[in-house]
Amino acid sequence: MMPQAPLVTLVTPTYNQARYLQKSLDSVLEQTYPNIEYIVINDGSSDDTESVLNRYDGRLNWSTQANQGQAATLNAGWKVAQGKYIGYLSSDDLLAPDAVARLVAVLEQDPSVVCVYPDCDLIDEHGVVVKRGLCKGFDLEELVVRQECHIGPGALFRADGFRRVGGWKTYLHLAPDREFWMRLAGEGSIRFLPESLAGYRLHAQSISYQSTSDEQSKEYLQVLDEYFAGNVAPSILARKQEAYAFAYFLMARNAMRSGRPLRGGRYFVEACSRHRGFMHPRYLLQLVRNTLSKPVRVAMARVRARRLRAD
Fold first, then answer.
1. Phi, psi angles (nearest 5°) of residue 110
2. Sign of CA dihedral 238, 240, 246, 249
């Protein structure tokens, strides 16, 4: 008698994504892997999300709540998860049919791996592949210092490791996932599976820029304060000032995008004072681009998307 495949729990938080939701749900329900618990939480959507979910009664575990945000919604789903392995899928992204099976195989074969994630393709609003191979191998040092996170849709992690570090921090709005990966990396290795097994969707909502308050931007500093207060590898500790400089650069960028150029200029000066590398002209050019009006930036993003599609 064959042993039962370990249970995998996937959570999808959804907010006003009815247009894409059915494709995402189907991509999970059509997995070749035989033992999946699927939890979907409607986070107070005002569109047709609930009517879409009604079509799936009996096929998945779904509920509706007042809007709480992505982090709190994911935590609520993970709190009741029964799986040995858990993960999530955004309600506009997709999984290839054998994604879960391929990822579970990695976790089962190597107990030192706490998380595994696949490569993914960039897809447009119609599901057409725009660019292949978005992800790269995980590098904790670059994640901490340069905010470079290459973990895309489809990541699975061990439930016991997740419970030791806790879920996403609900007071973070800009990058709660990055902070989570920093903590989870202390529980074991994070493995990249170089197979395109997911689709990351690019659409009008995902390429628009939202104004970011100074309070939200300061999250970059808060995350670094918390990280460097713990046990840090010497190679990362040696780049501490560079990490803070890059955080100030991101704060400058956000201030420019939000129409606060003087504040952005002050943050940029602070970045340069902490690390001379930010005096390179390319960083100043990036800030200048961010002084463009929101409609211009969105238009430029759409042009880039068309060029990617043409390539």
1. -135, 100
2. negative
252, 264 Cβ separation under 8 angstroms: yes
CB of 254 closer than 8 Å to CB of 212: yes
Task: Please give the model's pTM, rounded to 2 decimal places.
Answer: 0.88
- Which domains does the chain carry? 8-207 (3.90.550.10), 214-310 (no CATH)
The residue among 55, 91, 61 whose CA lies nearest residue 76 is 61
Q: Which two tokens stand for residue 150?
A: 């290459």
Cα atoms in the 13 Å half-sphere on the side-chain side of 118: 26
pLDDT in tens, 1-36: 457 899 999 999 999 999 999 999 999 999 999 999
Contact 174, 220 (CB under 8 A): yes
Cα-Cα-Cα-Cα dihedral sign, residues 92, 98, 102, 108:
positive
| Residue 59: half-sphere exposure toward Cβ, Cα within 13 Å | 14
